[in-house]
Design brief:
Layout: H1 2-8, H2 12-16, H3 24-32, E1 35-37, E2 40-45, E3 48-52, H4 54-61, H5 68-71, H6 81-92, H7 110-115
Antiparallel strand pairs: 1-2, 2-3
Length: 116
Amino acid sequence: MFLEKLDAQGWLDLFTNIKRGCSISDLAEFYAKCIVTSGVVTSTVNGHELRFDVSDLGELLGVSSEGFNVYVRKDKNVLGDERLLELTHKLVQKPHLIESWSVKKGEMMPLHQLLF
């Protein structure tokens, strides 16, 4: 089920391509120097400056960035009450809810926590 979810989101290749590696020390340096300003991420790794936004990252990873701007909006009302309630039901697996709310990571199902 997890692989199906990754495939549906266009992320399966990222997780299953063994030619792509990850250096722990480079990743630690990236996060230590990472700054996010107005949706643009900048960092330095091994003396190389990295600068990208959501569109650049989606293109680089070969995944869709469509809908990300709605995902990170503080005001989610653009989705409408019915869609917000549907998403809340899916994330917390509580179909009896009658109102949507802001879901914290700890309230999510384990699979959604991993994807988050």
